Amino acid sequence: xxxxxxxxxxxxPDGPGPSPSQxxxxxxxxxxxxxNVSKVYGSGHTAVTALDDATMSVDQGEFVAxxxxxxxxxxxxxxxxxxxxxxxxxxxxIGNVDVTTLGGKERxxxxxxRVGFVFQSANLVPFLTxxxxxxxxxxxxxxxxxxxxxxADQLLEELGLxxxxxxxxxxxxxxxxxxxxxxxxxxxxxxxxLVDEPTAALDTALGRQVVQLLRREIKxxxxxxxxxxxxxxxxxxxDRVFEILDGHLTHVxxxxxxxx
Length: 260
Hints:
- Helix 4 packs parallel to helix 6 (174-186) and helix 6 packs parallel to helix 7.
- By secondary structure, the chain is of the alpha/beta class.
- 30% of the residues lie in helices and 23% in strands.
- It has a domain at 20-125 and 181-253: 3-Layer(aba) Sandwich (Rossmann fold).
- It has a 6-stranded mixed β-sheet with strand order 6-7-8-3-9-10. A 4-stranded antiparallel β-sheet has the order 2-1-4-5.
- It starts with 19 loop residues before the first helix and ends in a 7-residue tail after the last strand.
- The chain is built from 7 helices and 10 strands.
């Protein structure tokens, strides 16, 4: 059975929600503020616009979904938010820092300290154990070894992986690998957690478990989270849903306004 893919141009019975710009006006003190961000590849008649004038705001403690079909610009947007990709225009503020003004080294340092990533395929280091994958992240910001060890053990315990700490990724199930990836994303106590299609390689039941776990960790820790997905079944665990199509953020909905 194929995953349901949302047509971001379709409306709910009550009509679509507010535009992202209108919605952002109601969140002036948001932790994340994306303002008129565009990404264009190439120039002249060969130019391709991957993201067009995107504006959105997400409050501290919120877990939101960025929902749209494949190729809609979801990954481009969170890559710019996380400092992995430069914007062609616009600004991205995380707290009081405009990520788009940072140089290469500054952006790398900022990502390591304040942004956590959970990728579609977990992307664990294959020759490191689950525990070592978490500890490696701590070395990027020079966390003292004792403090790093305590945090890694705490996260593995919370994620139900204490008994798998010494296992290599190839010895873990798909769900366990994703849980290690969540722990790695939280290891440096980031402000913002960006999650790219975390359920793509999982069956529905396991996917729900992973998204429920993400929500719990983000909420319990007072973090801000954005989950990229094309799967309508997973948005019920989020606070708000931003819909995107062909590089345009179209409107914002509550999960209850979307059919599951």
